[in-house]
From TrEMBL:
Phylogenetic classification of the source organism: Bacteria, Pseudomonadati, Bacteroidota, Cytophagia, Cytophagales
Species of provenance: Chryseolinea serpens
CDD domains: GT4_PimA-like (cd03801)
Protein name: Glycosyltransferase involved in cell wall bisynthesis
PANTHER family registered for this protein in UniProt: GLYCOSYLTRANSFERASE (PTHR12526)
Pfam family, one: Glyco_trans_4_4
InterPro entries: Glyco_trans_1 (IPR001296), Glyco_trans_4-like_N (IPR028098)
């Protein structure tokens, strides 16, 4: 059976890392091998449980592209894959360096809106210069890839512009999830969580890395308005990231330490979603939001920012959509989701139907393998 070598920066708890696991574990015609270039392997055990070989190169430093290419070349010679499939900026750069040397078909996955205008607006002058340098490097080397997978049409369009990639080289394949993991959650798991926060508390949930672009600062400010009207509501934010201290300071300053909790990384997200009265996703920009798809599959009412990436998943009839970055509109949408139960439940049911049609993981895995076949037949 032909092998696909997935190359990624690390195997930490990120959306791209989890998506590769979900997709590759369902391959029928290809054998996946996963190689992470830099240290960090929190998900290694999960890959091994699915019978997927994991190779860690543990290249020191943040970039060190020369050493990374040397170690990856050794891995390629050992694994003998039919296709190399890289994901995330650093891995893309390293894999592109080896494209001509190996002659193997190379696929890059586009999963982020890395060069979104809002990043440049909020960045320091030094960071703006760094982003521009990385963008030039990314665009210059992108021509070496044979094909790109984009996890959304919005990301396809954005990266085609930013990296000067012809649109016909970018194939949209959505991220997927196993719908049963989120629609059929054991009631006792939900009951256990309800006892933790109290049976009479109404829970709002956000699942996301703690990053400025994820909009959690907006969420805390909006939640202050909601909490003033409904003191029985609690906000839970599941995820970890470098923005934690900033968020903790804002929670304290707003006097919300008893009502807002940063949960860190969790392995019980399906049960948390079933517990929640509403899932709130206020991102300023995204790739394709896996956490939003999980909420759709769980029948949980959704409040989401009206960014293009979110709108590829849910529309107004399937969620409560608010203007990105508008704290007052976010608060209004949360209050609407907490209001008339029938309206929220119907939107949640509509979102579930969309998820079943567009984001079923078995179908996504089949699309990957079909694209591999087509590339090898060129």
């Amino acid at each position: 059976m032909k092998k696909v070598l997935f190359v990624i920066d690390t195997l930490e708890m990120g959306g791209a890392e989890k998506s590769i696991l979900e997709i590759a574990s369902r391959f029928k015609n290809y054998t996946p091998v996963v190689c992470h270039i830099y240290p960090g392997d929190a998900l290694k055990g999960a890959y091994l449980q699915q019978g997927i070989e994991v190779i860690g190169l543990d290249v020191p430093g943040h970039y060190n592209f020369g050493e990374a290419a040397r170690r990856l070349q050794s891995t390629i010679l050992s694994v003998q894959p039919a296709i190399v499939h890289s994901t995330l900026f650093r891995s893309d750069i390293v894999a592109r360096r080896l494209r001509k040397k190996n002659g193997l078909p190379l696929i890059n996955s586009l999963v982020n809106n890395t060069y979104h205008s809002s990043r440049f607006k909020t960045a320091s002058m030094l960071m703006k210069m760094k982003l521009r340098v990385l963008q030039v490097l990314d665009a210059f080397t992108a021509r070496k890839a044979d094909l790109f997978f984009s996890n959304s049409e919005a990301i396809r369009q954005s990266n085609a512009r930013s990296l000067v990639i012809p649109l016909d080289k970018i194939k949209v394949i959505y991220r997927g999830r196993d719908i049963e993991d989120f629609s059929n959650v054991p009631p006792e798991a939900v009951a256990t969580l309800r006892n933790v926060w109290g049976p009479h508390r109404r829970i709002l949930l956000n699942v996301s890395r703690l990053l400025e672009r994820k909009g959690q600062m907006d969420l805390i400010l909006a939640f202050k308005q909601v909490h003033n009207q409904f003191p029985d509501v609690t906000l839970l934010i599941a995820g970890e990231g470098p923005f934690r201290k900033v968020l903790e300071a804002k929670i304290r300053a707003a006097g919300l330490t008893d009502s807002v909790q940063l949960l860190g990384t969790r392995n019980d997200v399906p049960a948390l979603l079933k517990l929640a009265k509403a899932f709130v996703f206020p991102s300023h920009y995204e790739g394709l939001p896996g956490a939003l798809i999980e909420a759709m599959m769980s029948h949980t009412p959704i409040v989401a920012s009206g960014i293009p990436e979110n709108l590829e998943c849910v529309q107004e009839g399937e969620a409560f959509i608010f203007r990105p970055g508008d704290v007052n509109d976010l608060a209004k949408s949360i209050l609407a989701a907490l209001g008339v139960h029938g309206a929220a439940a119907q939107r949640a049911e509509n979102a579930y139907a969309v998820a079943r049609q567009k984001f079923d993981i078995t179908s996504i895995a089949a699309q990957y393998e079909a694209a591999y076949d087509n590339l090898l037949q060129r």
